[in-house]
Amino acid sequence: MAPSESQGESEISALQRRVAERQSTSLPHLIVEDLERMIINGALRGGDRINESALALRLGVSRGPVREACRHLERTRLVEFRTNRGMFVRQISVDEAAQLYDIRASLFGLAGRLAAARTDAAGLEESRALVTRLAGAVAEMNDYYPLNVDLHRRLVALSGNPRLVELYDGVSKELHLFRRHGLETAAARGISNAQHGEILDALAAADTATAGRLMEAHILAGKERMLAAARG
């Protein structure tokens, strides 16, 4: 189901408030963050047009910062420029999504092995708190998905490897255009979150082999759900 107009309006209003609080030099970065958030939350979906002039007008800024933000998102492959038509949220094929899932699974598995080897008690506690919040959000996709994204990024950060986090973020951002397909049902979200608990148990036990295996398998399970949903 397409996101409601009121959801998009709410996202824009929140962005307007943040724009008013920042200096102009940080506007492009701020707009990038919020456009990414709108993609994660489903307020913008693959194929949606980003009207730079309308967005600038609604934010009360010039087109320059909006254009710069869109160019940055184009470099990260979240949006694409179509000649004589403007900027659009990029659409990716099922085959491309599957390839990205495979890359992401390998990175997530590596993060698991590294994280288990350097147990971060505080980080694990924060992650367990997120799993609890996810359990309470299983019924509603728009509540569950952003928390799920946050948890996965936190788990990768537990690796203590900033370059790995950067690589994972790049792949994950492209997959935001497709990842929701694997979590469309409450049952799928419940299964996914149960796996989160198993992963945290392995990390807490400093079991590098199991943590790596479970984290890689977790992403590959998401890939299979995505493929099943795409097949209809």
TrEMBL record:
UniProt-listed Gene3D superfamilies: GntR ligand-binding domain-like (1.20.120.530), Winged helix-like DNA-binding domain superfamily/Winged helix DNA-binding domain (1.10.10.10)
Among its keywords, does the record have Iron-sulfur?
no
SMART domains assigned to the protein according to its UniProt record, in alphabetical order: FCD, HTH_GNTR
Q: Where is the HTH gntR-type domain?
A: 25-92
SUPFAM superfamilies according to UniProt: GntR ligand-binding domain-like (SSF48008), Winged helix' DNA-binding domain (SSF46785)
Q: What domain of life is recorded for the organism?
A: Bacteria
User: What are the UniProt keywords, alphabetically?
Assistant: DNA-binding, Transcription, Transcription regulation
Q: Pfam families of this UniProt entry?
A: FCD, GntR
- Name one molecular function that GO assigns to this entry: DNA binding
Supply the name of the protein: FCD domain-containing protein
Q: What is the lineage of its organism?
A: Bacteria, Bacillati, Actinomycetota, Actinomycetes, Mycobacteriales
